[in-house]
Amino acid sequence: MKYTPKEITEEVNVTKVHPLVNLASLLGTTIVVSAAIYLGLGFVAGQLATRMDPETEIKIGQSLFPTGISHREHSQQLEYVEGLLGSLQQEMGATRIPLTVHLWENEQLNAAIFPGGNIVVTTGLLEAVETENELAFVLAHELGHFAARDTLKALGRSLVFVFVSTAIDSQGGASGVVSTTGQLTNLHYSRTQESAADLYALEAIIRRYQHGGYSLDFFARIKAKDTKGKLSEYFSTHPITQDRIDELKTIAAARGWSMTGVASPIPETVTSSDHLP
Amino acid sequence: MYNLIIFFCLLALGYFSGNYFEQQHYKSIKRRERKTLSLPAVTFGAKKPIPEAEVAALFVGSVVISADYFKMFVYGLRNLVGGRVVVYESLLDRGRREALLRMKEQAITWGASTIVNVRLESSNIGRQAGNNKGMVAIEVIAYGTGIK
Fold first, then answer.
1. Model pTM greater than 0.80?
2. Which of A105, A205, A212, B66 has the most CB atoms in a 10 Å sphere around its CB?
3. Is pLDDT at A144 greater than 80 in this prediction?
4. Domain range holding A262?
5. CB distance from B34 to chain A under 8 Å?
6. What is the distance between the alpha carbons of residues A212 and A137, in angstroms, rounded to a whole number?
7. Does the CB of A30 have a partner CB in chain B at under 8 Å?
8. What angle do CA A197, A201, A202 make, to 5 degrees?
9. Is A11 domain-assigned?
10. Which ranges of chain B does DSSP label H, i.e. alpha helix?
C-alpha cells in the first residue's frame, strides 16, 4: 500500500456557522419560548386565583403574612385608617373577605397589600399625607389590587417563576436568560395591574367624595422627589408617576368626573405625634 | 443591572479572546500539519501484524483545551433547546489535531517511519458528574506505536 500525504483542506468536523448568528438564533428561541411559558402558566395561575374561595385565601394570607414587623395596635391612627378603608370598601362593594390594616412603624412612604386582605400602611406615609383625599387614594389603590386579586395572581406567577428557575438552575448563564425574561414578563403584569388599580382608586374616590380633587397630590409630590433616569423607569415596577397622573386625568375628563373640590382634612389626632404610645 | 453589565463584559471578553486564540491555534495547527505531513499516522495495527520494523515505541500526545465564557453561554442555551453544539465542535477539532500533532512531532524527533495503531481518546476536565457548573475543558489524548 502506498501512503500519499494529504493536507486537510476541507473542515468537515466544524460546522460553518458564525458564532454570533448561532448565539442570536439560540437566544431568540430561548426568549420566545420562556416568555410563552411564563405568560401561559401565569395566565393559568391568574385563572386559579380568580376561582379561589375566601377561606383558602384567608388561610394563604395567614401563612404568608410577615409576622416580624412591628405595628401599632389600637391606636387612633389605626382606627382612622380602618374607618377610611372601610368606607371605601363599602363604596366599591369589595367585601369578599374582611380586610386587616397593619400600621407599620417605618419611615418609608409606602402601603402594600398582602394575600388574605392584609393591608400594611407605614407610619411614614401617614405623616407625609396632607389631606384625607391623598390617603384615601393610596388606600383605594391597594383596595383595587385586592378587588382584582392581584396579590394572589402574583403569588401564583411567582410559584411558576420559582419552579422554572429551579428546573433550569444548573444551566449556568442560560438560566439567567430565562429568569430575566420571566422578570420582564412579570413587569408587564405589574404595570398593567398598577394602572388598573389607579383607575379603581379614582373611581372609589369619586364615589366617596364626589370629586377627585387633591387625591393625586401625593403622586405629584413623590414625582418631585423622583430623580431617577430613563433606564430605571423602564425597569421600575410602577409606571412613572407623571404617566399615571396624566392617564387618570384623561380618563376622568372622558368620564366627566370632577377633579376639583374641597379637601377633607385629616383629624388632628392622627397627624400630631403627641399621642404616640 | 450591574450583573447584566458584568455579564455582557464577560461575554464580549469570551467572544473576542476566544476567537483570537482559536484563530491563532488554527494557524499554528495548519502550519505544523504541513510540516509533519510526510509521517504516516495510521489506525491499522491492532490484531494484525504491524509492518516489519527494527524498533517500536509508544508515542502519546495530549492536550487540554478550555472553552471560553461565550462558548459556555451558547452551550447553556443549546442545552435547553437541543441540537448540534456548533461552538464546541471547533474545540474538539482543535483538541484532536493538536494531540495528533504532538504525538507526530515526538515520533519525528525519534525518527519514526510510520505511526501505526493510532487511537484518540477524549475526556472532560473540571466537570464531575452532578456538578454542571464551573470550568469546561476537554483533554484529548492521541497515542500510537511508532516504528522505524
1. no
2. A205
3. yes
4. 19-271
5. yes
6. 9
7. yes
8. 120
9. no
10. 2-35, 69-81, 86-110
Enumerate the residues of chain B whose CB falls inside 8 A of the CB of residue A175: 76
State the smallest CA–CA distance between residue A157 and chain B in angstroms: 21
Spatial distance between the Cα atoms of A258 and A262, rounded to a whole number of angstroms: 11
Nearest chain B residue to A178, by CA: B77
Residue A13 domain-assigned?
A: no
Question: Rounded CA gap, A153 and A148, in Å?
Answer: 9
| Fold of the B2-147 domain | Translation Initiation Factor IF3 (3.30.110)
Q: What HEC string does A175-235 produce?
A: HHHHHHHHHHHHHHHHHHHHHHHHHHHHHHHHHHHCCCCCCCHHHHHHHHHCCCCHHHHHH
| Predicted local distance difference test score (pLDDT) of residue A178 | 77
Q: Which of A220, A199, A198 is nearest to A131 (CA)?
A: A220
Inter-chain touch A168–B89, beta carbons under 8 Å: no
Contact B63, B83 (CB under 8 A): no
Given a cut of 60, whether residue B144 has pLDDT beyond it is yes
Cα B36 to Cα B50: distance, rounded to the nearest angstrom:
21
| Portion 31-50 of A in contact with B at CB < 8 A | 33
Q: Where do the domains of chain B lie?
A: 2-147
pLDDT for A156-185, tens place per residue?
888 877 887 777 766 656 677 777 777 777
CB-based contact A170 B132, cutoff 8 Å: yes
The CA distance from A4 to the nearest CA of chain B, in Å, is 8
Are B77 and A174 an interchain contact pair (Cβ–Cβ within 8 Å)?
yes
Q: For residue A4, is it within any domain?
A: no
pLDDT in tens, A244-272: 778 888 888 888 888 888 888 888 777 65
CA angle A181, A184, A185 (to 5 degrees): 85
* A49 lies in some domain: yes
Here the ipTM equals 0.78
User: Is B19 within 8 Å of A29 when comparing Cβ atoms?
Assistant: no
